[in-house]
Automatic annotation (TrEMBL):
Keyword tags: Cytoplasm, Flavoprotein, FMN, Oxidoreductase, Pyrimidine biosynthesis
Catalytic activity field: (S)-dihydroorotate + fumarate = orotate + succinate
InterPro entries for this protein: Aldolase_TIM, DHO_dehydrogenase, DHOD_1A, Dihydro_DH_chainA_dom2, Dihydroorotate_DH_1_2, Dihydroorotate_DH_cat, Dihydroorotate_DH_CS
NCBIfam families per record: PRK02506.1
Cofactor(s) required, per the database record: FMN
Quaternary structure and interacting proteins, as annotated: Homodimer.
Name assigned to this protein: dihydroorotate oxidase (fumarate)
Amino acid sequence: MKIDLSTHVAGVKLESYLMNASGPKCTTWEELHTIAQSHSSAVVTKSCTIAPREGNPEPRYQDLPLGSIQSMGLPNLGYKAYLEMIPALKALGKPVIVSVSGFSVEDNIEMVTAFQQSDVDLIEVNFSCPNIPGKAQVAYDFEQTDKALAAITALGNKPIGIKLAPYFDMSHFVAAANVIKKYPVKFITCINSIGNTLIIDPYTEQPIIKPKGGFGGLCGDYIKPVGLANVRAFRELLDDNVQIIGVGGIKTGIDAFEYLLAGADAVQIATCFEKEGETCFERIETELAEFMKSKNYQCIADAKGKLKPL
Ligand code: RRO
């Protein structure tokens, strides 16, 4: 029996539960084309800004034994380049999800308005980049999140979702969920990297990345328990008409299955894609299907959100 891994996010059908995350290897046309040719069920673009950006000084990314740390600083081609790529990307046959990350509400209004008029399938607004010197993460400021959502959810009919920072306190899950509930947010993506962590090389006595004195976003295995908790908490707090995309430390089919139990409608892969390349999508898909088969689950809905009480 073939396991059906198809799913829906904000009314968009995805042929499988797995896609790339905004972040690694999704900045240029060549990279996005590679994702479209892989088993990723959608093409998600690198977060864009109004103007093109080189990003932070290097070294700004380092592999770690259980993941990575990075402070890329939003290197991207500028939103107009992604706007122009959309017809060709769509022609490759998969849903396209654009990620936008303005430095102000006005920036986000300009970009969301433009993408609302495009052929993109979903718009993910990034409220949680931790790596811009002097800029706070919107997702940690609930008043700012409220104002931003009021503005960007009123610009058209294309589904809007938001990429959230990891939260670590139950009161913050409740506060974030209460703001989200006020607006037609169709999906949330959680979590972004754990921001402002520090890895020190004791031999050189230096940080291992350069920007912000070494402070950067922690990714990969280290953050999976945080990602699972965020997906679980929001699944319990939000109505079922808000889909949840899980991200954080997924590198095997069993990791993906854990996110499914927590309540994710789909998952995104960042660090594993960075390290392994685009073959990871097919590998993880096969592993997930095999694990579900071993448990007699036939489709995503059979296990979604079905974490059992202990
Ligand atoms: O580019 C980055 O430094 C970056 C972004 Br926009 C983000 O949302 N999360 C992250 O860990 N890095």
